Amino acid sequence: MGKGREKQGMKTISILNLKGGVGKTFTAASMAYELCRRGCKVLLLDNDKQGNLSRAYGRYDAESVAPMTKLLSGEWARPDEIIQHTDYEGIDIATANMSLFGAAWNLAREESENQLLRYAQLGKSKIEHHGDCTVWAKYDYCIIDNPPDIGLNVINALAVTDEVIVPVKLDNYALEGLDIVAGQIKDARRFNPGIKLAGVLVTSYQNTDGESAALEWLQGQGKYKILGVIKYSKKVAENSFLQKPIYEYSPCCGAAQGYKKFVTEYTGEAR
Ligand SMILES: Nc1ncnc2c1ncn2[C@@H]1O[C@H](COP(=O)(O)OP(=O)(O)OP(=O)(O)O)[C@@H](O)[C@H]1O
Ligand SMILES: [Mg+2]
Q: What ligand is nearest to the CA atom of residue 21?
């Protein structure tokens, strides 16, 4: 397997956890917004057939073959068939819908040589009217929102990932599966030697006896770096259909403040 990517300063972050409903998509959407506020150019890849990240940025389209599906099946020619702008200057997205499921399934049967390099090919391709500028070179960050399972689409994401962030919700059995994710990242080193587990991000945190005990245990265990603790906010739970970044409709709520602090610490850049 080749190196699989050619990057110039851009960082690719995969948001990954095999558990559903732990705040992966909300984390991807909020990080993009926070990075954009800091002047960064962000490319979002919606790697989940549920298309929730595409919805969060108002670009979900159930009908057509989704750009991420074309990317995974290799059926595209120019980056502008895959990437579109959002309403936010500095945030672009490649959207998904249910058609991604079929593409992952077909690819699994194909056994073609560049089976793991489908997303890498987007990064290396040149942007029209931009001279030699590749897609990777155009952005500061690429954030990939993954589904709660591991298929060939996730393997393709890991092939281009620099760092993995694992959102966890400290409810019952929250930490189950963490070792499996860590193992998966280790396996991915075979085709992407540089991939790293950045750490876990505690999401939807409520200061109950159970959750504070779980947080203490996680901190004391020292196995996984804790990148931040995002509080549960009623505003978030209530406004899933608002299709607006949390920082815009409720900048003072615990979750918005939590993501702001987390991104500042993660990037080392305040805003
Ligand atoms: N800090 C928070 N406070 C309150 N609710 C939250 C918070 N973070 C996420 N949620 C809510 O929890 C639900 C699940 O979040 P999200 O969709 O981001 O999870 P997910 O891990 O992407 O799920 P899936 O595995 O289905 O893709 C959503 O309704 C979201 O609005
Ligand atoms: Mg999701």
A: 1
